Amino acid sequence: MSGKLILVGTPIGNLGDFSPRAVSALQECDFIAAEDTRVTLKLLNHFEINKPLISYYEHNKREREKNICDRILAGETCVLVSDAGMPAISDPGEELVVACARLGIEVGVVPGPTAAITALTLSGLPTGRFTFEGFLSVSKKSRKAHLEEIARETRTMIFYEAPHKLRYTLEDLYNTLGDRKIAIVRELTKIHEEVFRTTLSEAIKYYEEQNPRGEYVLIIEGAQPAETESSYTLEQAAQIAEDLIKDGMSASDAAKAAAVRSGLKKRDIYSFITKK
Ligand code: SAM
């Protein structure tokens, strides 16, 4: 009889959040696949669990997948954990679940905290409808495409960000989305847990003085639903583009960003600003 795969959520900062069911899953499995075996070993030592560990991370997940599935098909039960939070959420795991589903392997879950949802609940922004955007790409092209795609998104948006990229990301968000409410949530469940409820423009000013530190989740207000096809006049959209040009953007990129934000045509905005 085949075994199963169990996804187990681990704490995002506070070991007290590791549930009794999660401890049992680790105690009862045959082996553990971990994003970083050194990080997971600390967790296992804390709970006095002694189980075989193998690594399963971004750069070996393809080759490991077959080995893990073969062992499960032969009857073993595998627990998958990441360094913190839920596996498969901006962490390895998604492909392994797909592979198990394809092979008819049973997949179970012991849910734990995930930074995205934990931060959303604290944000003070609408939680009824939201989107999870993960990390913005470091590749300029895909980053730009992602930002343009979400410029007219009306649902609350959740982003992960590393401290050294926070300033850059806040500026990109401001340039694409305009000034919006944002909750900057850091160090969840740790000693320095903090929620900064502000606007994108104020956040940019704040981090000119403060060095970003720790782990961050950004929760951003969605766009106001347009009452008509576009709530912007051509003059207003041109003004957005001109402000971006003053900040150093090319006329073409500025017209494109203003078009995304206003819902008007790039061509119209571009000819308006270049004919003036
Ligand atoms: N799988 C994890 C989850 O379920 O939340 C996310 C892993 S992702 C590689 C790591 C990112 O999650 C960090 O860069 C940060 O944006 C966010 N994060 C994780 N722990 C956090 C915490 N304690 N406080 C704030 N953000 C956190």
Keywords summarizing the entry:
single chain; 276 residues; alpha/beta; Cobalt-precorrin-4 Transmethylase, domain 1; Methyltransferase, Cobalt-precorrin-4 Transmethylase, Domain 2; 3 domains; five-stranded parallel beta sheet; five-stranded mixed beta sheet; 10 strands; binds S-adenosylmethionine
Describe the structure.
The chain has 276 residues and is an alpha/beta fold. It has 3 domains: 4-113, Tetrapyrrole methylase, N-terminal domain (Cobalt-precorrin-4 Transmethylase, domain 1, 3-Layer(aba) Sandwich); 116-220, Methyltransferase, Cobalt-precorrin-4 Transmethylase, Domain 2; 234-274, no CATH class. Helices cover 43% and strands 18% of the residues. The chain is built from 11 helices and 10 strands. The strands form 2 sheets. A 5-stranded parallel beta sheet has the order 3-2-4-1-5, with helices on both faces. Strands 6-7-10-8-9 form a 5-stranded mixed beta sheet. A hairpin with a 7-residue loop joins strand 8 (181-186) and strand 9. Helix 7 runs antiparallel to helix 8, helix 9 packs across helix 10 and helix 9 crosses helix 11 (266-275). The protein is elongated. The model has no long low-confidence stretch (mean pLDDT 94). Bound molecules: S-adenosylmethionine. S-adenosylmethionine binds at residues 12-13, 82, 84-86, 89-91, 114-116, 160-162, 186-190, 215-217.
